[in-house]
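Moderator note: this is an archived Q&A kept for reference. The question asked for a predicted structure of one protein chain; the sequence and the answer are reproduced below.
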Amino acid sequence: MKHYSTTTVAMLALASSSAFATQYLSVEQAQQVIFAEANAFKASTLQLTLEQMHQVEKLAGLPARSVAWRVIAAYKDEKLLGYIVLDDVIGKFELISYAVGLQPDASVRQVEILTYRESHGIEIKNANWRKQFVGKSAGAGLSVGDGIANISGATLSCSHVTDGVRRIAAIAQVALKK
């Protein structure tokens, strides 16, 4: 029987866990896809207060999960077009990186999958599934089975991305809405 060193085993495990990783869009590419008409983007970190976190949890029906959020404001000249919030959620075992484009009124403009690392469930990348989010806000229609269809074989990815979008829509409602 062949014995492998701890380092060899760790390297094989790392290689196998990222063997399915596919980057579809960089953050810069997502900015251009979501807000093609924008001519300026300004990145910042949104820091939620404790009160805002409670409001997000109440509105989303989910834990706020973090105080700090990566936000990019999109502008056409001096006019605010909206925001992009970047996030990661667990699929089944691995992280799914995605971007949510939001209108200034906190409704969802677009959802883009940036990187998908799972071996199954990539169907969430399909434009028809992602289109279900457009125009929705935190209040209603942002749950699998209530406005968002499930995809057989991608149930966890669907549920977790949908929950993430609902959380981001609540954050937008509480802290970004103009």
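Archived answer notes: The two ends are 66 Å apart (CA to CA).
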